[in-house]
């Protein structure tokens, strides 16, 4: 190695000398040095030139000296002929004049240099030159490669690398290009092509046969346009129609159905009005129907805030505008239903309730009552009435319904609605008037406007009475079916007392037929207990049968009691005293259970056990004292003899107090500080390589990365894979352009071709520079 | 019909303003989720076990060659296309998706020594024992056309390897010397030589494309500069290097597959010490190829196995073998970094998954998240003894296993001997030589 280095140093030195020589030559005049050859003749010419320049220094031109003469006898070393004398021209002779003139300093210097010059060294052998070239080339390449250092480092340390690095642009070749390059070769292909060409089936882009083209040409432009437009229109219409049909078929939206319902209601109303004009009897029936529907709705408590839907909407209302609106609508509806009656009662109440009582049969009243019975609004309404009487007419109901409809219509904007509203108002007032007249008829003997209406009314009365009776019976039957066989006797006597309570809701049962609802009914009914109507009826009963009164009271109390305890029991069961016994039984059972549990775990005092255990653990872990006393040593020993206290004290080595226990201040914990062998098998014993301190490692293990302990974002960040590759994508080697470097514009091949086998002049210069370093 | 659906109370998740913090439906208070380390440990253990359960790397075997597969080449533009040359001079082109041979060419007489594709993927070059270099079209000849090479160059000596330039229409062959050819000419535009032994293989650098590396039978690796038409440097190792491969992401890194069972990763600027010595094979390493991501490489060995090494690890992370696979002569990592192909003595080309337990096909986002999480868990707990034991466990054929044991004993003996020598000689006279420096004999400038 050292020898090689020495060699290199020598080579460098020789090159240095060579370069110095060249520099020297370059100095005086450039024209000369440029086209200079290397060699011995070179030196001679240089010298001649130098002499010439020296000769021309003292103003006069000495052409004679410069001229070439024929070979003389003696040829001097420097090829200068001295005429005549054979004496040698010395360098010192030439130098003498130079001393005197100061302008020759530069020349002097040059001459001095020439004087000091050694002989040119031998050229380096081929191997060494090659070695130098290699070294230079290697250094250069290393330099070019070192530009990749930052990128490589960055990629190695990157948190995540996504391959392929560059974005791929898919390039699509148009089909014509593909087709044009493809030719039919096999006989089958050729046959197919022949067929195609026979029909002149085009293969490339405008896929129209000549025939089609001709037909296209045949139609005039306007005609074609019109036809196209027509076709387009037809197609569009068809598609619209289809789309609409499809949509309507699929629609599930509540809003849509609401609108549809409204439309239907409106239609029905119109029909009803027409019917009223044409056939009043039928209209009345219709009215009845509407009224019934309304009653049902009111009964069902549909529009309270207590439903599941309403509750959920109440929650959502804070954020959702639609939900809020729905809520409001619901409330409005509720209000409507409640207010309607008040309006009616006010208007009616003034007109006189007594007349009504006379006019309207009880059954009708009762129907009304039970329809409104479970409705708390109704209750309040009744309370507000001083008399507490029910004032209802079969003719009244249509009014609120109509109003409802009108109100629902109010929601729709537009002038039409206002007109409609006016109409409704007028109609309503008209009807009221008619009603008044009807009401007043028996008293004031006014003329009736509608005799047929009256007839219908009377019929209705009869009908309702019948219905009532029927309902009553059916109700009774149902109730009896519920009851146990044992209580038949009791039931018999109780039935009559129940009667008024039951009587109030024959319709209820008709509508809600399941027993489950009976419970609710009972509940609502009991709520209504303080109702004046009830009181009245009771009073009636007391007058009828005074002996029943205490029983009645007793029962009432009982009922209230039961309600507190069991709200879902069927009324019949509740009414009888049986359930209390059942309840007591249940209570007893619970107690019994508790007792059993107590007995089973009688001896267990967990806390005390734990404390005991802890005490033992503490004791076991305490360092023990060492007793070194030897009985019988220095004193008498034997059975029943103990070493003296003094001796024991002397030889007892007290154990040092250990470190405080970790669970010292934790009363309900035992911490064992023993090494767990089973856990040790899973633990790392040696600090793994990249970590320098055990704390680092512990910390990395202790930070959880799962989504159980981290937010979603943090989880994603913590679990990013180091290398991401896309399936099916070719990953190409990294390119200089990808990372922002500009690669050389010339291709490697062209550079190689332009290079001769030996390094170029540029290369040479660089080589020199490096060897000088 | 009543549609039942879940509805949450918006109070629990809706922010009042956008500036509010996101409502977290979960309480991340660490006191509420205790034992996180032990829970994650269990998860990591399960993930590691599952990884081993699902590790089934072998995908397919492409059979059709009638002699040992001597060389493989990837198509630069199509992932599904692979070219292979056999010892009987036959070249086959395979479709990996169909797992079928789509074309067969009798390219040479004797071995197909080397095969390489042009960067555009329209043609490929082969060299054979019949002293020819042939260029072939990638597409099959049309109906009625004969299977003929585009060009044939008849050389004076046998060519042992070929590689194509990554951008220019030039290729390099090796044999007695390294020749650089222009595709249009029948004579090399330059030939470079350094030493007199035959050269096994030559490889272009994929990034700085003017660089070449070659390895010769006289145990050395030589680097060349194509532009300056000169060799750059030579490193002599203990034993012969069979082939080298450049890292496709790091311009100055290459890995050499050596006869002394090891692979050496060099930084070409500092050849006197390899960056890493990769040891695990128990016989000569015949071929090496980098993963396109540049993070790993695969090596094929005479010991009938292939191994996958991370670039920065000296030990392999994976070993693949099958009962029927004989000496593996050539190996390639596919361009999408998902698969590995290896050609072996017993005429088959085998297709492996690069990641043994990876699920192929499209992953749902949740699946991917779970996969990433499991991967991170495995990384986190990789040092724990039980997890390490499971993760490292591989079944090996008896021959390899016993070889490993034997070599371990040999190595231990050598180490002990050196230790003893050091102990019993003058301090400093027997220096400690690191494993990396041990194998480099000399660097010639």
Automatic annotation (TrEMBL), chain A:
Q: What keyword terms does UniProt attach to this protein? A: Nucleus, Phosphoprotein
Q: Where is the composition biased (Basic residues)?
A: 759-773
One cellular component term (GO) for this entry is: small-subunit processome
- What are the BP-aspect GO terms? rRNA processing
Bias kind Basic and acidic residues: ranges:
386-395, 411-435, 506-541
Does Lyase appear among the keywords? no
According to UniProt, the name of this protein is: U3 small nucleolar RNA-associated protein 14 homolog A
Native species of this protein? Chinchilla lanigera (Long-tailed chinchilla)
What gene name is listed for this protein?
Answer: Utp14a
From TrEMBL, chain B:
Q: What residues does the Sof1-like protein domain cover?
A: 354-440
Can you tell which superkingdom this protein's organism belongs to?
A: Eukaryota
Instruction: Name the source organism.
Output: Chinchilla lanigera (Long-tailed chinchilla)
* Pathway info: Protein modification; protein ubiquitination
Outline what the protein does: Part of the small subunit (SSU) processome, first precursor of the small eukaryotic ribosomal subunit. During the assembly of the SSU processome in the nucleolus, many ribosome biogenesis factors, an RNA chaperone and ribosomal proteins associate with the nascent pre-rRNA and work in concert to generate RNA folding, modifications, rearrangements and cleavage as well as targeted degradation of pre-ribosomal RNA by the RNA exosome. Participates in the 18S rRNA processing in growing oocytes, being essential for oocyte nonsurrounded nucleolus (NSN) to surrounded nucleolus (SN) transition.
Return the WD repeat spans: 62-104, 278-319, 321-362
Name the InterPro entries for this protein.
Answer: Sof1, TIF_beta_prop-like, WD40/YVTN_repeat-like_dom_sf, WD40_repeat_CS, WD40_repeat_dom_sf, WD40_rpt, WD_repeat_DCAF13/WDSOF1
Keyword check for Protease: no
Q: What Pfam families does its record include?
A: eIF2A, Sof1, WD40
| Name of the protein described by the UniProt record | DDB1- and CUL4-associated factor 13
What Gene Ontology molecular-function terms does this entry list? Answer: nuclear estrogen receptor binding; translation initiation factor activity; ubiquitin-like ligase-substrate adaptor activity
What CDD domains would the database entry show?
WD40
Q: Where is the composition biased (Basic residues)?
A: 416-426
| Location of the Translation initiation factor beta propellor-like domain | 199-307
BP GO terms, sorted: decidualization; epigenetic programming in the zygotic pronuclei; maturation of SSU-rRNA from tricistronic rRNA transcript (SSU-rRNA, 5.8S rRNA, LSU-rRNA); negative regulation of phosphatidylinositol 3-kinase/protein kinase B signal transduction; oocyte growth; proteasome-mediated ubiquitin-dependent protein catabolic process; protein ubiquitination; spindle assembly involved in female meiosis
List the residue ranges of the region (Disordered). 416-436
Per UniProt, the keywords (alphabetical) are:
Initiation factor, Nucleus, Protein biosynthesis, Repeat, Ribonucleoprotein, Ribosome biogenesis, rRNA processing, Ubl conjugation pathway, WD repeat
Q: Of which family is this protein a member?
A: Belongs to the WD repeat DCAF13/WDSOF1 family.
Principal location listed in the UniProt entry: nucleus
């Amino acid at each position: 190695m050292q020898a090689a280095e020495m060699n290199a140093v020598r080579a460098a030195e020789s090159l240095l000398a060579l370069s110095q020589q060249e520099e020297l030559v370059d100095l005086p005049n450039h024209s000369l040095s440029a086209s200079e050859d290397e060699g011995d003749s070179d030196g001679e010419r240089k010298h001649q030139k130098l002499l010439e320049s020296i000769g021309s220094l003292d103003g006069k031109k000495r052409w004679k000296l410069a001229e070439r003469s024929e070979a003389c006898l003696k040829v001097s070393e420097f090829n200068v002929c001295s005429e005549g004398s054979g004496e040698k021209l010395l360098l010192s002779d030439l130098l003498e004049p130079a001393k005197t003139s100061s302008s020759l300093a530069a020349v002097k210097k040059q001459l001095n240099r020439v004087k000091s010059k050694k002989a040119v060294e031998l050229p380096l052998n081929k191997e060494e030159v090659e070695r130098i070239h290699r070294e230079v080339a290697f250094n250069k390449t290393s330099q070019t490669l070192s530009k990749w250092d930052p990128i490589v480092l960055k990629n190695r340390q990157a948190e995540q690398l996504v391959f392929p690095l560059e974005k791929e642009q898919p390039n699509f070749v148009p089909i014509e290009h593909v087709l044009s390059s493809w030719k039919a070769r096999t006989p089958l292909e050729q046959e197919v092509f022949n067929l195609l060409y026979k029909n002149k089936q085009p293969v490339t882009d405008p896929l129209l046969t000549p025939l089609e083209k001709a037909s296209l040409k045949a139609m005039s432009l306007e005609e074609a346009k019109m036809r196209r437009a027509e076709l387009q229109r037809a197609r569009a219409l068809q598609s619209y129609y289809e789309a609409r049909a499809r949509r309507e078929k699929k629609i599930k939206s509540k809003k849509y159905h609401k609108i549809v319902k409204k439309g239907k209601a409106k239609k029905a109303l119109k029909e009803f009005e027409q019917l009223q004009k044409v056939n009043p009897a039928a209209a009345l029936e219709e009215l009845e129907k509407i009224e019934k529907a309304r009653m049902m709705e009111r009964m069902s408590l549909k529009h309270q805030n207590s439903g599941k839907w309403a509750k959920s909407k109440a929650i959502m209302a804070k954020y959702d505008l639609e939900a809020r609106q729905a809520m409001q609508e619901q409330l409005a509806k509720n209000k409507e239903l409640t207010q309607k009656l008040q309006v009616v009662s006010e208007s009616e109440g003034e007109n006189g309730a007594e007349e009504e009582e006379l006019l309207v049969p009880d059954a009708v009243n009762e129907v009304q009552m039970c329809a409104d019975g479970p409705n708390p609004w109704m209750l309040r309404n009744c309370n507000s009435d001083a008399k507490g009487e029910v004032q209802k007419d079969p003719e009244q109901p249509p009014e609120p319904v109509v109003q409802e409809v009108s109100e629902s219509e109010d929601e729709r904007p537009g002038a039409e609605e206002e007109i409609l509203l006016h109409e409704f108002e007028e109609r309503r007032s008209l009807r009221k008037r008619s009603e008044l007249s009807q009401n007043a008829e028996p008293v004031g003997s006014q003329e009736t406007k509608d005799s047929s209406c009256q007839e219908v009314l009377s019929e209705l009365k009869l009908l309702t009475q019948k219905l009532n009776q029927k309902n009553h019976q059916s109700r009774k039957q149902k109730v009896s079916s519920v009851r146990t066989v044992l209580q038949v006797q009791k039931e018999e006597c109780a039935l009559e007392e129940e009667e008024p309570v039951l009587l109030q809701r024959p319709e209820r049962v008709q509508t809600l037929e399941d027993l489950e609802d009976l419970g609710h009914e009972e509940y609502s009914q009991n709520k209504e207990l303080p109702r004046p109507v009830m009181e009245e009826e009771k009073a009636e009963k007391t007058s009828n049968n005074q002996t029943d009164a205490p029983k009645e009271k007793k029962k009432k109390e009982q009922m209230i009691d039961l309600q507190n305890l069991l709200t879902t029991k069927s009324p019949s069961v509740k009414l009888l005293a049986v359930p209390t016994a059942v309840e007591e039984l249940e209570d007893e059972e619970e107690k019994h259970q508790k007792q059993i549990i107590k007995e089973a775990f009688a001896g267990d005092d967990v806390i005390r056990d734990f404390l005991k255990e802890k005490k033992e653990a503490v004791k076991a872990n305490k360092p023990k004292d060492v007793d070194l006393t030897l009985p019988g040593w220095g004193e008498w020993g034997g059975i029943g003899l103990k070493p003296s206290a003094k001796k024991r004290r002397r030889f007892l080595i007290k154990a040092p107090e250990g470190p405080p226990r970790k669970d010292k201040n934790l009363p309900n914990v035992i911490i064992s500080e023993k090494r767990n062998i089973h856990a040790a098998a899973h633990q790392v014993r040696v600090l793994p390589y990249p970590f320098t301190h055990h704390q680092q490692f512990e910390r990395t293990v202790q930070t959880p990365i799962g989504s159980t302990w981290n937010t979603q974002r943090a989880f994603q960040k913590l679990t990013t894979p180091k290398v991401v590759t896309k399936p099916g994508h070719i990953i190409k080697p990294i390119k200089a352009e990808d990372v922002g470097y500009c690669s050389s514009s010339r291709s490697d091949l062209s550079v190689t071709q332009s290079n001769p086998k030996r390094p170029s002049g540029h290369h040479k210069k660089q080589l020199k520079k490096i060897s000088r370093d | 019909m009543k549609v039942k659906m879940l509805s949450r109370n918006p109070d629990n998740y809706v922010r009042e303003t956008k500036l509010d913090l996101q409502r977290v439906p979960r309480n991340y208070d660490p006191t509420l989720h205790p034992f996180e380390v032990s829970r994650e440990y269990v998860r990591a253990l399960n993930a590691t076990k599952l990884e081993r359960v699902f590790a089934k790397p072998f995908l397919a075997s492409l059979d059709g060659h009638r002699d040992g597969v001597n060389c493989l080449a990837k198509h630069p533009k199509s992932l599904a296309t692979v070219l292979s040359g056999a010892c009987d001079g036959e070249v086959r082109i395979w479709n990996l998706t169909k797992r079928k041979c789509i074309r067969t060419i009798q390219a040479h007489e004797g071995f197909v020594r080397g095969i390489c594709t042009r960067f555009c993927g329209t043609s490929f070059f082969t060299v054979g024992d019949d002293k020819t270099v042939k260029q072939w079209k990638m597409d099959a000849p049309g109906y009625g056309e004969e299977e003929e090479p585009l060009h044939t160059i008849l050389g004076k000596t046998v060519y042992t390897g070929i590689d194509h330039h990554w951008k220019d229409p030039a290729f390099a062959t090796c044999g007695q010397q390294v020749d650089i050819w222009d595709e249009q000419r029948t004579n090399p535009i330059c030939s470079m030589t350094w030493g007199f032994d035959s050269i096994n293989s030559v490889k272009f650098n994929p990034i700085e494309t003017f660089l070449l590396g070659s390895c010769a039978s006289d145990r050395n690796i030589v680097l060349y500069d194509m532009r300056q038409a000169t060799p750059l440097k030579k490193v002599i190792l203990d034993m012969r290097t069979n082939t080298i491969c450049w890292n496709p992401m790091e311009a100055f890194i290459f890995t050499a597959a050596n006869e002394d069972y090891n692979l050496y990763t060099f930084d070409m600027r500092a050849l006197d010490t390899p960056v890493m010595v990769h040891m695990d094979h128990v016989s000569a390493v015949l071929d090496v190829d980098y993963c396109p991501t540049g993070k790993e490489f695969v090596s094929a060995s005479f010991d009938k196995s292939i191994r996958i090494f991370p670039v920065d690890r000296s030990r392999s992370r994976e070993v693949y073998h099958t009962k029927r696979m004989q000496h593996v002569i050539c190996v390639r990592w596919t361009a999408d970094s998902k698969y590995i192909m290896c050609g072996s003595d017993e005429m088959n080309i085998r297709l492996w998954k690069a990641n043994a337990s990876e699920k192929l096909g499209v992953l749902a986002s949740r699946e991917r998240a779970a996969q990433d999480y499991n991967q991170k868990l495995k990384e986190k707990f990789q040092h724990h003894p039980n997890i390490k034991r499971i993760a490292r466990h591989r079944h090996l054929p008896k021959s390899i296993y016993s070889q490993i044991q034997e070599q371990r004993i040999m190595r231990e003996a050598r180490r002990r001997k050196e230790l003893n020598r050091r102990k019993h000689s003058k301090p400093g006279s027997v220096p400690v030589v690191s494993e990396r420096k041990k194998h480099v004999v000399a660097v010639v400038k």
